[in-house]
Each structure stands twice: as C-alpha cells, then as structure tokens.
Amino acid sequence: MAKDQTVLFHSTVFGPIHSRRLGVSLGINLSPDDGKVCSFDCVYCEAGYNAQGTGSTGLPTREKVKADLERKLSAMKEAGDRLDVITFSGNGEPTLNPAFPGIIDDVTALRDRFYPDAKVSVLTNSTRIFTPAVAEALKKVDNNILKLDSAIEPTMRLIDQPVSGQFTVELVVEALRQFSGTGIIQTMILRGEHNGRKIDNTTDKEITALIEAYRAIAPREIMIYSLDRSTPEEHLQKVEKDELLAIGRRIEAETGIHVQVN
Q: 64: helix, coil or strand?
C-alpha cells in the first residue's frame, strides 16, 4: 500500500543538513522544486513515488544552480559555518538534468573558492552511467556514490522499479566497472512487501550475489544502510544495526573492500 508522500526539497540549494554518511552536507537538487523526476521509482524513496508528477517549475538551469550555490556558500563562509560536503541529491535522479556535466564543473570551482577542504558527492541510481558525458562528470567528483540494491534481477526490479525495461543488473554491473577503484557502491538493505510480493535482500542468496557483483566492480568502498525516514510503501521494515554490521563484516571479508555501515 502506498502513502501519499511527496517531494522533500523545495529549492535548488538546501541545508546544510547533517548526513549520517557524509557529515555536514549542503544539498543540491537538480530536479524540480515542486515535483519528482527520476528513472527509478524506488519503494523506499523518501521523496515519494513518481506518480505525484513532475511539478510545474522544471529542472533548474546551470546558471540558476551556480548563482544559488555561490550566494549560499558566500553567506556560510561569512558566518564561519562548517561544511564537509556538497551533495547532489534531492527530488529525483540528478544526472537526468541535461546540464549535469557543466554543473559539476561549476560546483567544483565554487567549492575550491569557498570551501576547498569540502568534498563534492553525487548520489546516483546508476541509470545514466551509460552516457559518456555523465560518466566523465562523475569521475571528477570526490565521492561518486552509485546505487546497486540487488544483484538479482527480479529483486532489483521490485525494489527500484526502473522506468526503462532496458535497464538490467547485468548491464549496470558491467558499466559500473568503469569506476573500479574510485566509485562507491551504495546498497539499501531492507525487508517488506510491495503489491503483495515479498522483498528481502538480506538472504544468503542475495548477499552472495551482491558479493559477486562487488568483486566484479571493485569499487573503492561499499556503503550499506537501511531505512531511516518515512517511505511511500507502508510495508517495509528497517534492518537493525547489528544485522547490518554482520552483513558488512561478511561482505568485507569476502571482497577485501572496506564496507561502511550506516
């Protein structure tokens, strides 16, 4: 059953907020500020389902992002505020904005000017890494955080609900290999039900498949986490920290890749 949950962010630049994974984070929303644009329709998305619509404001332009961020960083610097990271997140998939590559260049330059020690992070669902300009832009950021919620096709489709039928686990795992040694793979661990179908990516079969995928991709780091906020699907369950830690230890032991558990 779905809840009437809608987008969280009503501006292009938001925060700063405290991120459990990244620290003091200033957010950049490259989706509309009154609607959602995403190539996934994840059952756990805190911004709600795509059915809420794309809104009326449209995608922010490169010029707007640059002006809004410059204004915010200048004010924060003058106030002596701390900043650990500038994070692309928001009401959908940031790489769907056609200006994404240029925006990355602008944001990096502004970071260097105002907060040179801060990191630039992008949270992406990995659907656009097949586009060379997007992939090259992602390679420029400090934390290129790429989604892989399951390495088993039916589970991935049930959890992430990709808009395109052409998007498959096999294709994305192969494409993710271009970020070997640099990318961070992020996996949501959860249980529950959606449309009468059971969701559980904590089973031995699921974790074994993920481990095989992580080995093939060889990222610099793996992040696993569970639910922390309200979700549009009512019948989902958070996996508690002790179990996440145990899963993380197994993944780390069998891949040799550092696992961050949140």
A: helix
